[in-house]
Write a structure and sequence with these properties.
The protein is mostly beta strands. It is built from one helix and 37 strands. It folds into three domains: 61 residues; 251 residues, 3 Solenoid (Pectate Lyase C-like), CATH 2.160.20; 89 residues, Immunoglobulin-like. The N and C termini lie far apart (66 Å). Strands 6, 7, 8, 9, 10, 12, 14, 17, 20, 23, 24, 26, 27 and 28 form a 14-stranded parallel sheet that branches.
Length: 449
């Protein structure tokens, strides 16, 4: 700490004095090094505010916490070539900026912040900044009680391997912040192909995609073991597990993770979500769909859907969402984006030049509804049309129009809140869809009693 001092009592600052000690007896005092005493001696001064006629008054104290900025550049244009070198040079409160490139080698895997509160961030985002572990280690290994002030932002972690945790491991109470990451093609010979969190580690994970990861244990995408981690706007796609949960596995009586606005889809082996040993995750406003072992939820859950998220091109690696996806704000009743990427630029159908989209479905009216609701839609041209109502699990509740040829222009059909067997359906959220010439548009309606 440094004090600004008035040494002659005129009310102005005369000196900057370095503070090296503090004592409370016989009075509140600070030990100072100044130019009036020999350099090796300490002057003990009472703490008094600066005032006219009062010598040795203190105006203000400053502390200096250096924000050391380090640049890493694999091509040689920074302070270091390797990410771990940058991390080791950084001090708490500092930043490690990583320039675009593919980072390989021993100093670019199993990256360990050693408990420091630093921000490790790419300058150009995950698409252009790749940590390729080459199957020889994981991307990041948190094991020194890192807090939320330790941030990793904007990387692709590829070909990671480790047990547990193929891409990222958080252990022993570590709770870093992980944001804007893509963890792909990572594998664990234990639990957590993409991310493993255990023994009280509770990271905040947001805007992260875990793609094509696998585990011989549980949790091909993510594994939680006695943790209160948070997943927000995460996409877990195409992962697999030998034992349970290709998507997210939760185990242990102290597992209380929160999963929100997240997509868990397309697991090639294992369920979307599993709970063992009294684990109790909380899942809200998320989409769990198309997982080989099933889409049933466990723990505490509400306001979720099991509908095709309609990725732009999942097979090609594009996990942005189509304009008719139920996971974008106008496709679900909560007005939220689910998953890591939001709406993409893909079209579900390419119209002739100058012709509007083939179908527009207007919001149901009334909404919420207590008896029936009207579905108004416009067709840009004549075509074969299907109009259906689905429940939140994606099951067809009512077919209102079945493969009927309809003319261009406005149309309206009414749903009387009955299913195909004529029974009154329960209150809840339902999804109304119009399919015409290969394009599906969807809107939601809430039924009340």
């Amino acid at each position: 700490m440094v004090f600004l001092v008035d040494s002659d009592g005129d009310g102005g600052t005369d000196h900057f004095v370095t503070v090296v000690g503090y004592a409370e007896t016989p009075a509140q005092q600070y030990g100072c090094l100044d130019t009036w005493y020999p350099a090796e001696e300490v002057r003990w001064c009472n703490f008094l505010q600066m005032a006219g006629g009062r010598p040795w008054g203190i105006y203000k104290g400053w502390t200096f916490d250096p924000d050391v900025t380090v640049y890493v550049d694999a091509s040689g244009g920074g302070d270091f070539l390797n990410i771990q070198e940058g991390i080791d040079a950084a001090v708490s409160g500092g930043h490690v900026y990583v320039r675009p490139g593919t980072y390989i080698g021993a100093l670019n895997r199993d990256l360990n912040p050693h408990g420091k509160a630093i921000t490790i961030v790419s300058t150009d985002g995950a698409e252009d900044t790749v940590i390729d572990c080459q199957g020889l280690g994981r991307g990041f290994n948190f094991q020194a009680y890192e807090t939320a002030a330790c941030v990793v932002d904007g990387f692709t972690i590829r070909n990671g391997a480790g047990a547990p945790g193929g891409g990222v491991r958080c252990y022993f109470g570590c709770s870093p912040t992980l944001v804007n990451l893509r963890i792909e093609d990572c594998a664990s010979t234990g639990n957590g192909g993409g991310i493993f969190c255990g023994i009280g580690a509770s990271p905040a994970v947001s805007d992260v995609a875990v793609v094509g990861c696998s585990a011989t244990g549980s949790g091909g995408g993510v594994s939680f073991a006695n943790t209160a981690a948070t997943l927000t706007n995460v996409t877990i796609y195409g992962c697999s597990s030998v034992t349970n949960a290709g998507g997210v596995a939760c185990s242990g009586s102290n597992s209380r993770p929160t999963i929100q606005n997240t997509i868990i889809a397309g697991s090639t082996s294992g369920a979307g979500l599993s709970c063992v040993d009294s684990a109790l995750p909380t899942t809200t406003r998320s989409c769990v769909y198309g997982n080989a072992g099933g889409d049933a939820l466990c723990g505490t859950y509400s306001d979720n859907i099991s509908l095709d998220p309609l990725f732009c091109d999942a097979g090609g690696g594009d996990l942005t969402l189509r304009s008719d996806s139920p996971c974008i704000p106008n496709g679900n009743p909560w007005g939220v984006t689910m998953g890591a990427y939001g709406a993409g630029t893909c079209d579900t159908w390419v119209p002739d030049a100058g012709v509007p989209a083939v179908a527009v479905l207007h919001p149901p009216y009334p909404n919420p509804a207590d008896s029936g609701t009207s579905l108004a839609f416009d067709l840009a041209r004549e075509g074969s049309v299907e109009v259906r109502v689905h429940d939140a699990a994606g099951r067809v509740v009512r077919t209102l129009v079945a493969d009927s040829r309809m003319a261009a222009g406005p149309h309206t059909v009414v749903w009387d809140r009955r299913d195909d067997d004529g029974r009154d359906v329960a209150s809840g959220v339902y999804f109304c869809s119009v399919l015409c010439e290969g394009e599906r548009v969807t809107n939601s309606v809430v039924l009340l009693r």
